[in-house]
Fold each of these.
Amino acid sequence: MKRVRITIAPPDTYLPPVYQLLTSGTPYLSHVQIVNWNVADPPVGFLLRVRGDYEKLRQALTTSTNVRDFEVFPDSRSEAYCFLAAKQPTVGRALFENFTRDDLLTIPPIECYDDGSSSFTLVGTDTAIQAAIDGIPDGVDLSVEAVGQRPVTASGSLSPKQRDAVRAALRVGYYDVPREATTKDVAQEVGCAPATASEHLRKAESHVFSSLFESLDSP
C-alpha cells in the first residue's frame, strides 16, 4: 500500500457553484476543510469544517445555487461544522469519484483553497493510485506533495498561490526584521493586486500557525 498527498487545481468548469462560494467567494473564511462526504445519488452530502465568520456563510448559503439543504453547527466563536446537501450532481462529481475507485481511499480532511485547488491524501495500491492519477481530466493540474510515510509539512497545506506569495514575500524581505518590503512589493513580485497578495499571505499564515499549534498540542 502507498500513501500519496496530492494537490489538484481544476478549471472553473469543474468547480460547483457552492465550492466556489466556499473558497473564492468567502473572504471572511480563513480555512475550509471537507471532513466527510456521501456521493450517493441521491443524496450528495458533505460535512465541512470552517474557520472564520460562519454566520456570514450561513446567510450566503440561503441563496446559493444547487443547495438542497444545509445546517451550520458552531464549535467555537470562530469555527463551525457545516452540513451541505446538493440538489443534483455537477460535472465536478466525476472528478471526485475518480479518487474513490477500486482499492483507493481518500483520507479526510480535504483542504480547500481560495484559488479553487484542494489537497488530500490517497491510500491504496500502486495500481489504484496510478489509475486515479491517469484518470485526471485534461486541464486539471496535479502536483504530488508527499509520497510514502514522509510527513506532510505545514507548507504542504498551502494552495499553490499561497506558496507563491510566501516565497515572494521571503525573497523581497517582507518577513525580515525589520521588515524590508510591503504587500505591494509582494504583489509586484507575483503579478497580482496588493489586496490579493495580502489575502494570500494572511491565509497562508493562518494555515501555518494552526498546523504548528495543532502538532504541538497533539499527545
Amino acid sequence: MLQSTGMKTRPLRCALVGNLLEPRVAECAIGLVAHLQRHGLQVLVAVEDAPSAVPAGVQTVARAELPERCQLVIAIGGDGTLLQAARLVAQHDVPVLGINRGRLGFLTDVLPQDMAASIDAILRGDYSADRRRLLEARLVSADGAVRSELALNDVVLLRRETGRMLDFETRVDGRFVNSHSGDGLVVATATGSTAYALSCGGPIVDPQLDVLVMAPVCPHTLSDRPIVIPGASTIAVTLIGRGEGRADVTCDASQLGSMQPGERLEIGSSNRSVTLLHPPGYDYFRLLRSKLRWGRGEEQHER
C-alpha cells in the first residue's frame, strides 16, 4: 500500500547493491556515489560485489551486514537485483530504491538520467513509500525437515526431467483445488503478477491488492487456468504419480530445493515486508504503458 512515510529519519549511510563489475552498473554507481557524498552520506557496498578498486570514501562490508549498517538501500540493475536486495533487507526495516540498468524494470523504476533528481527528492522527504508483503515458501520433506525462503515476486514449482510432465495436487487453506499435469506452478504476489505468472497467462494485478495468483505452467488441459485467491491464503502442493516425477522449487529465481513425491510445499504470506521508495510522479499505470508498450503514447491520453 502507498504510504506517506518510509524512512523515520534522513539517512546517514546508504548501501549500493548490484553487480559493480558490469560496466553499465559501474558507470551508474560512480555517478551515484559522487552525488550521495555531496549530500554528506556515507556509501557502503558489499565486498562480494565490489571491484578491486572502489571510489574514494566508499566502505566495503560483508553483504549480510549491509542492512544493519545503513538506512537506505539502492539497487542498481534489473528487477532481479532489486529482488535480491528485498530478500537482503527482509529482516530489517530498511527501504529500497531501484535504479534501472536492466531490461523491463517493473521494480527498478528510476531511470539513470533521473537518479540524481530522485535522490534529491527522497532526501527532502518527497516520495511515496510502497510497502509490499513477502511470500514464505516452506519445503517439508518426508522426515519432517523444513527448508524455507522468502519471495517478493513468486514461488515457482517446475519439473526437473525434460520431456516428462509433472503431476501434482493443490489445496488452498486445506480445501482441495485441483489435480494438475504440466510443467509446474507459479504462485505470485500482486508484485510478481507482471513476471513469470504473466507469461503463463495470469492477470496483471494492481500491487495495492492483497491477493495471490496461482498460474499453472504449460498445463496439459486447456481448462486448467490461473486463479486469484486472497493474500492471506495458504497453498499446499504435493506431487502425485508413480514416484519418478521430481521438481525444483525457486523463490524469486533463488533455489530453495528439489521436491519429490511424499514431500509438501507450503506457500503463504510472510510477516515480513519490504518498502519500495518511489520519487514524485510515480504512476503504476504509466509504468505499465511504458514497459508493455500499450496504446499510442501517454501524451495523447493525458491531454
Amino acid sequence: MNDKDLQNQRIAMAWRTAWRDRDFRIKTITGSLLLIAVLIFFPYFFGVIERRHGIRLNDWLLAAIPPIDVSGLTFIVIWSMTIFLWVRCAQTPRIFLVTLVSLLILCFSRILSISIVPLDPPAGLIPLTDPISSLFYGGPKVFITKDLFYSGHTATQFLIFLCLEKKKDKLVALLATITVGTLVLVQHVHYTVDVAAAFIFTWPIYLLGKKIALRKPQNASPN
C-alpha cells in the first residue's frame, strides 16, 4: 500500500468518525441548508440594494489609483483559493465544519452591514467580471455595484486564511488575501474602508464560527 492509499484511508476514517458524532451531523446539515437558503436569497437582496441611493465617499487612495480592469486575475486568485480550500475541507472534517459555520455567519454579517451602510459605488468603478460569482448576484449579465461595506471578496479570502491550519497553506492564503484586497481597489470595485473593514469584521466572525463549530454539548454522545 502506497502513501496515497494510506492518506485516503486516514481521510475516510476521519470522516467516518466525524459523521458518527451527532453534533457534527446536526451542524453540518443545518449549516449547509442555511447556507443554500442564503445563497438563494442573495440575488433578491442585491437587487434591492442596487436600486437604493447611498452616499459616495471621498477616498483619497482610490483617487490616486487609475482604475484598471483586473477581473481575470481576481477571478483566478479567488477560485484557485476556493478549490484549494475545498480540498483541505475534504481532507479534514474539522476545517470543513469551521469554514461552513464561519462562512454562514459572514454572509449574515454582510447582509446586515450592507443594509445599514448605504453607499454608492466609487468613481471610476469597473464592474468585476466573474462568471461563477455572478450566479449569486442574479446572472452573468447582472452587475451589482452597491454591495460595498464590507468587501466580501477580501473577507472570504481572509476567512480562508484563518480556517486553514498548515503554515504553508496559511501563507498562500494570506498572499491571496492581500492580492485580492489590492485588486478590488485597483478596479475601484470597493472603497479603501470596505477592504480594511473586511479584516476587522472577519476575525471575530471566525472566532465565533470556530467556537460554535467545535463546541461540544454537555453530555455529548458520539451516536
